[in-house]
Amino acid sequence: MKKTLHLRRTTAVLLGTALTALSLAACGGGTDNGAKAESVSDADIQKALDKPTELTVWSWSASLPDVAKAFEKEHPKIKIKVQNVGTSADQYTKLQNAIKAGSGAPDLATVEYSAIPQFALSDSLVDLRRFQYDALEKDFTKATWQSVKVGDSLYELPLNAGPMALFYNKKTFDKYDISVPKTWDEYLTAARKLHAKDKNTYITADNGNAGLTESLIWAAGGRPFTADGSKVTVNLKDAGSKKFADSYQKLIDEKLLSPVAGWSNEWYKGLAKGNIASLVSGAWMAGTLKSGVPDGAGDWRVAPLPTYDGKPTSSVNGGGSLALLKQSKNQLAAAAFLRYVSAGKGADIIQESGSFPARTKVLQSQKFLSEKDAYFGGQEVNRVFTDSLDVVQEGWQYLPYDVYAMSIFNDKVGKAFTGSSTLQQGLDAWQQELIKYGKEQGFTVG
After folding, report:
1. What is the pLDDT of residue 89?
2. For 196, how many CA atoms within 13 A lie in the half-sphere containing its CB?
3. Strand-pair partners of 202
4. Which among 213, 230, 220 has a CA at the least distance from the CA of 150?
5. Which residues does the chain have with pLDDT short of 70?
6. N or C: which end of the chain has fewer CB within 10 A?
7. Around Cβ 231, how many Cβ atoms within 10 Å?
8. R_g of the chain computed on alpha carbons
9. Residue 279: its H or E element
């Protein structure tokens, strides 16, 4: 589960979100229905695994089919069909349509952490407290555990984590005598120095990235979104949002950001040549660099996310796991597979594919922490990511319509990267549209 977990959604997925507002009244905000449902014991789940059952899972994860095969080997009466019906937005659109129709949904589906509130508030997911899975809290990091909850309800078991870090090309930094920046002021200085020495070299590439912007606002202490059932607030003028906007605006004004579009061929070429000298991203970027920029092996390193005052702090970018759909007629067997994926042997299989883990026992393992990564010059990068996860700021919330928010970001904030507006003006325009949309969907938005 690499970059596809973190990217590009479309407005289509929320065309049917009016059902959210209708469901809010019916389910009390979708935050306590699991506590009222009849609880299920481990013995009940084991009995279900002894009955011939076919599960359907919608996921774009390349490693999940291998996990399914391993599970089937242990439980031969269970057959699992993993279907890739599209990544992120495409899958969410199909999932939303099935929810509206009342049939056609899979037993389980990959849902990114940022999209959980949308599906939880439409009362379409099973609260995993029904299976006593809330007892597993200690097995996962605090940051990821909070990401899979809405109110008191638990809708996923964390699978991976995306702690933020600075990926930088040491070869380029050394060539131009650039010190690794520890603060955003130092980052700006490095950007100026790089571009002054080579007009074709930039500190990074960014022409508008909604997920990155949210993560940087989060790390700056911003809390622009709050959601409590049908009550939502949107404030992209809070102190953290303004701190980010004021700092990042300098990079835009001085044309220190490469205009190359992320994930394009030119972007990969720039990373390979070192002309795009760094990236601020979640830990999953390590896998993207290895697969997309193989010629960069040995050139790249990882450092902590720059801060405003030099004190360690971070946020999360990306991540997701499996959610159990209420339409499932095989909820007990599905719950067993869900647990296997996130808290069992399946998690080990997925970790081997390059996914950064969310399990505390792994993150506390000296073997894991001391692994030397050849791509990153033998650096113990897991320590950097784990340290970042330890200082993730608490209190962040996603909008219950964050998928829609992502889809309109470039229409509003993206203009700042072309000079048509300032970054703060773009955030203000985004805020106005998010307030308007939320009210149209039946939320009380302030």
Report:
1. 86
2. 10
3. 276
4. 230
5. 1-37
6. C
7. 13
8. 22
9. strand 278-282
Q: How far is CA 59 from CA 156, 224, 322, 371, 386, in A?
A: 14, 30, 8, 29, 26
Q: What is the rounded distance in angstroms from the CA atom of residue 44 to the CA atom of residue 385?
A: 38
Cβ–Cβ contacts within 10 Å for residue 133, how many? 23
Rounded distance between C-alpha atoms, residue 87 and residue 57, angstroms: 13
Both tokens of 107, joined, read 């037993």
Q: What are phi and psi of 57, to 5 degrees?
A: -125, 125
Pair of tokens at residue 115: 């999209």
Amino acid at 354: G
Residue ranges and CATH numbers for the domains of the chain are 3-161+317-363 (3.40.190.10), 164-315+395-445 (3.40.190.10)
Residue with tokens 């605006």: 249
Helix (H, G, I), strand (E, B) or coil at 435: helix
Q: How far apart are CA 193 and CA 254, in angstroms?
A: 12
Helices (H) and strands (E) in the chain, counts: 20, 14
Instruction: Give the β-pairing of 278-282 and 108-112.
Output: unpaired
Residue 212 is which amino acid?
L
Q: Is 437 left (phi over 0), alpha (psi -120 to 50) or beta?
A: alpha
